[in-house]
Amino acid sequence: MYYAEEMYISETGYTSYGGQHKDESIFIPVKKGINFKCFGFSAWGMKFHYTITNQNINATFVLNYLDTFSQNLTKFTVIVMDNASIHHAKIIQARLPIWQERGLFIFYLPPYSPHLNIIERLWKEVKQAWLRPCDYVSFDTLSYAVNRVFANIGDSLSLNFSTFKV
Predict the structure, then answer these.
(1) I need a labelling partner for 161 at 20 to 30 A (CA). Which of 4, 18, 21, 44 fits?
(2) What is the CATH architecture of 2-11+32-159?
(3) What is the model's pTM?
(4) How far apart are CA 12 and CA 33, in angstroms?
(5) How far apart (Å, rounded) are the C-alpha atoms in residues 38 and 157?
(6) For 54-89, how does the pLDDT look when each residue is reduced to its tens digit (9 = 90+)?
(7) What own/partner pairs with CB < 8 Å and gap ≥ 24 does 67-75 have?
């Protein structure tokens, strides 16, 4: 079973929260940058499949990625997705019977339940911990860092989901 979702990483950086003292002025420079668009899915054992693209991630993109993935399956596989409109698009629904013949099944989470999709936690870890502030200096450094992080998920980078509280 895999949990799927798309994510964007921007050159503008990631700030999860912030605070300042009463007399302190904090400045974060604003920069319009290039976005990395990522679509991936992960399993509890940190099996991770992904693609990084500069295309828009829409229903056609998801369909093509899942179609390619389904052609190489050796056992029944379930992909858990949220209720985003691109996941429920007509072209996705039309392809479900073909994928089921190949052993790929899609399960949709209930509305408003991102806490049930474990890849959301993985994406948060990528942005908050595994990408460092110095990685956002330029497009090249960010590109290298994103590829380095994604290539190491499941090996030197992993999560212990039993330590997280819902």
Answers:
(1) 18
(2) 2-Layer Sandwich (3.30)
(3) 0.81
(4) 6
(5) 18
(6) 889 999 999 999 999 999 999 999 999 999 999 999
(7) 67/95, 67/99, 69/104, 70/98, 70/99, 70/102, 70/103, 70/104, 71/102, 73/102, 73/103, 73/104, 75/103
